[in-house]
Amino acid sequence: MHFISFEHQGNIKLGALLPDGRAAVELSALGFEREFENMVHFIQTVTESELSAAESRWNNDNPQRIPVDEIRLLAPITRPIHDILCVGINYRAHQEESEEFFSLQGKKDEQHIYFSKRASRISGPDEGIPSYPGYDDCMDYEAELAVIIGKSGRDIAPEDAEDYIFGYSVFNDVTARAVQKQHVQWLKGKSLDGYSVMGPAIVHKSLLPFPLELDLSCRVNGELRQSSNTRLLIADIPTIISELSQSMTLEAGDIIATGTPAGVGIRFDPPKFLHSGDEVSCSINLVGTLTNHIL
Ligand code: MG
Predict the structure, then answer these.
(1) Where in the chain is the domain with CATH 3.90.850.10?
(2) Could you report the per-residue pLDDT of 156-169, keeping only the tens digit for each?
(3) Residue 253 C-alpha to ligand 1 middle, in angstroms?
(4) Could you tell me the distance, in angstroms and rounded to a whole number, from the CA of residue 12 to the centre of ligand 1?
(5) Is residue 200 a contact partner of residue 287, using CB atoms and an 8 Å limit?
(6) How far is the CA of 13 from the centre of ligand 1 (A)?
(7) Which of 76, 174, 260, 291 could be 202's S-S partner, Cβ–Cβ 3.0 to 4.6 Å?
(8) How close is the Cα of 144 to the center of ligand 1, in Å?
(9) In the CATH scheme, what architecture does the domain 84-294 have?
(10) Which protein residues have their CB within 5 A of the ion that is ligand 1?
C-alpha cells in the first residue's frame, strides 16, 4: 500500500492512496482498530499481521474512498524523529559534475559521504517551498529516493538490510548551494526551513522488488534536468544501511535520503537555480511524483 498522511475536514489522518492517486482510504476503513498518533507511530508499532489484514481488506472489501480533491496530502512523515540521514555524491555522474565545486578529486568509491539535514517539519506534495532571496540566491533541487526505516537496529548486515526497511518515498533535498559551501560542512545549507520535501506516499517495501532498479527524474517548469536509475547508486541501499548502522542505532521512522543523480542546477553554465514561481517535480517510477512550486 501507499501510506499517506492527509488533512480532511480539518482533521489530520493516516491512510492509503489508491495507486492511481485519485482517492484515499482511511486506516480505520482498512480494519485498524487502534489509533495511531502519526505515521512514525504507525511505522513503529504496526505488526505484520495487521498489515496483512489491511492488505486483504484493501483488495477484497472495497473500503470507503475519499476523492483526492477533498483532501490535502501532507508529507507522509511531517515531523521526523531525527535529522534526515543523507548520502552525498552517490551517483557517479553527479560525482563527476561536483568534483570541482566540492574539491572531491581523489575521493574513493568506498568513501561514502554522510551528512544530516535538519527539518523541524517536512513539506508535502503541492506545498510551496519558501525562498530566501538575499540569503540564498543559489537555491537548488535534488531528486532522491528516500528509504524509511521500519525496524530499529544496529550493526545490520547488508544481507539483512531489507528486513529493516518499511518503505520508500520521493524526496527533494532542496539545497542553498552557496551556504552549503560557505560553512565547509553541509548541514546549514541543507537545512533552511521548508527545504525538506517528501511524498506523496510511503510505498511499502512489499510492492517493490529488491534490489531496487527505479527510474528517477526531476523537471523544473517541465524541463528535464535529472534522469537516472537507482541501480546506479555508488553505495547501494544495503551498503548504506549496514554502514550507517555500524555502532549507531537506526530507529524505526528514520529517513535516509540516498543521494541525487547528475543534473543539479549549479552544474549548468550559467547555473539554473530555482526562483520564485518555478515548479519543481521529482518522480520515481512505482514510488510517485512530488511536485511543488517556489514561493
Ligand atoms: Mg542530496
Answers:
(1) 84-294
(2) 999 999 999 999 99
(3) 19
(4) 29
(5) no
(6) 29
(7) 76
(8) 7
(9) Alpha-Beta Complex (3.90)
(10) 142, 173, 260
